[in-house]
Batch of 2 targets.
Target 1
Amino acid sequence: MAESAELILDGKSYSFPVTEGTEHEKAIDIAKLRDQTGYITIDSGYKNTGATKSAITFLDGEEGILRYRGYPIEQLAEQSSFLEVAYLLIYGTLPTQAELDNFSHQITKHTLVHEDVRKIFDGFPSAAHPMAILSSLICALTAFYPESVSPDLSKEEIDLNVIRLMAKISTIAAWTYKNNMGHPLNYPRNDLDYCSNFLYMMFSFPTEKYEIDSRIVSALNKLLILHADHEQNCSTSTVRLVGSANASLYGSVSAGINALWGPLHGGANQEVLEMLQAIQKDGGDTSKFIAKAKDKNDPFRLMGFGHRVYKNFDPRAKIIKKAADDVLSALGINDPLLKIAQELEQAALTDEYFIERKLYPNVDFYSGIIYRAIGIPTEMFTVMFALGRLPGWIAQWKEMRENKEPIGRPRQVYTGELERDYVGIEQRS
Ligand code: MLT
């Protein structure tokens, strides 16, 4: 007999079906709850609410497992490339060589942006945060491709928007940095692979030859893969919710970029590095900052520790920690911030206070150190996260459209005033 959940309300019993995922996660399907009982559920922060059924990413927070389309993150980070993982997330299978070549070729062909997009850069203050520019310009792509706002896009039309977005985001992202620095904006080079082209647009000058370092390209591939999807996190849920109104892919992803910018989400990697720099400036005594983090009356917060869903460790943090060691030693960099980070991690992993609260380093803790080692400035860290997360957002948006999910419309429990009559201004005290 199919499993169900019984609910007794006001002495009356109701039965709701239980649905089970392929990894045996169980959920009570309350779609008919309000119709049948008049009640709704309340779940602030949605910690117990499955907003959708999804076949893209599996995450087990208790066991520290993360898989894209069934493939363990450890294997993908070690053996795959960012574009291959993007294909996997978006289309559901690992591509054949011909499929990957075609996907890469299509993306390469679309890396140029309309010259009018370039002109928009002149309207931003040069000190604007790159995430503000990135979200604005990704949204602005809807103005250049107005046909992308339609409930009836064909498979081919969706694919074209996917390719355009994958291609143009790296050009726009690199230009946000160049704009910030007052440097000339570099046009993409279609003879280069995705990551090399991004690095070229970020770091080359028309006056000098730019040598691409394969160690940096491989570190970048790994970082982007590790960030590529994380099931229904805040920005992805935003993309799906905005997309559920049949908003364009560009508009939906732009909304996700704004969510990611928040310091409690993707903005955390910038905050980790700023924290490490502040500790270094203070003399580098990590035990002092561990004590401050434990002091309830001290406003200091240890950034990059703990996670909403991982309760033992973040599998991405393990991979990134090793990658940080590898990249720094391959590049011959001796970064004092890495030592501070390692000391903080060590102290936290052996301190009862942090163990009890399950405060383990998360993905943001070491990513900033690698970005710094490969020359990415701090205010670009969240942009790098967005670049990595893009295939995940696209895959989730596409899945939502293909499953014909209804427009998202949560309810609320109203706690305001009861009905009262309007009072003229002269009678108000
Ligand atoms: C992410 O990768 O999106 C972050 O770890 C946040 C999350 O999953 O909630």
Target 2
Amino acid sequence: MSFELPQLNYAHDALEPHIDAKTMEIHHGKHHAGYTTKLNAAISGSSDEGKSINEVLEKLDMSNSALRNNGGGYFNHCLFWEVMSPNGGGQPEGGLAEAINKAFGSFDEFKNVFSQAAATQFGSGWAWLCVHSDGKLEVCSTPNQDNPIMPGIGCGGVPILGLDVWEHAYYLNYQNRRPDYIEAFFNVVDWDMVQANFEANS
Ligand code: MN3
């Protein structure tokens, strides 16, 4: 059994004007598809064949760059598509809102910390909101296609929200204006999905 590129739950142009259709088309149909194909090639015939992507990444040999880059790329983009929605934006409610207030003081302060992590990740990478098993939240960033479930990454827990800050994620629409893209992302975050991820992992 091999990994499959997930379908988007919305049309390529559904996140406009915040994320443009052409970027979505290339990002999902070319970049994510490429990671998926190369992940399957890296897994084929190895002892990881048949495992879930979480199992593969949790026990990853970090010196295996094909699996690290493409397994990470596969997992990270699956989460990314899932936490965005044309009906997104606003603020979380319930348990997630409480956990955000506890960890950061307020939603606005969380947004600042997350945006800062995304803006200051040098070069390509991701910003994350992660939850530990005790429900404690943490923001961090990782380079390239690394993510917090890989061994020894240094920021803990399970990612429940991720933002891709590779230039391929924003350059067509925002050019070098990464902060504008980060600000726009908050208009499409599906907090119901992030809440579900929070509950499933805490
Ligand atoms: Mn990407």
